[in-house]
Amino acid sequence: MGQAERPVTRPEAFEEYGHGEKDPVTGYYEWYEAPPEVLKQLTTPSVDVTWSMFFEAWGDMVADFQEKYGLDLEHLARDYGFTWRRFAFLAIGLLTPPASQFAPATRIYRRFAPANDE
């Protein structure tokens, strides 16, 4: 079997699905809406990951949000009115495989990636 094509991970890939005001610091919109087939191409989880599994890995999520998005997850809701919808979209993005073999994978991706993806 050939290797599956890696999904697009550049922020520009999500641009056309952004809604609301664009944050001038992070470049992210308030929320995103993409058709299911597009969302699957952009952020395909390697395994079925539940929200419970995400929250059990809270420390990794906090570190990944800071490293990948430059966002302090622990203060977003209080200080900036961070929405659940935006959080969910970005959290799912942490499951995206690295764009190349030289790009670092997120902690969340490494935690939930199947053995043959590593």
Structure explained in plain terms:
The protein has one domain. The chain starts with 17 loop residues before the first strand and ends in a 6-residue tail after the last helix. It has a two-stranded antiparallel ribbon. It is mainly α and 118 residues long. The chain has 6 helices and 2 strands.
Give keywords.
118 residues, mainly alpha, two-stranded antiparallel ribbon, globular, disordered N terminus
N-to-C SSE string, H for helix and E for strand: EEHHHHHH
What's the Cα radius of gyration?
A: 14 Å
Count of separate structural domains: 1
Category by helix and strand content: mainly alpha
Strand percentage:
5-15%
The mean pLDDT is: 75
- The count of β-strands is 2
Uncertain segments are 1-9
Distance between the ends: 17 Å
Largest sheet report: 2 strands, antiparallel
Helix content: 40-55%
Kindly report the spatial arrangement of strands forming the biggest sheet: 1-2
Biased composition (Basic and acidic residues): 7-22
Region (Disordered): 1-22
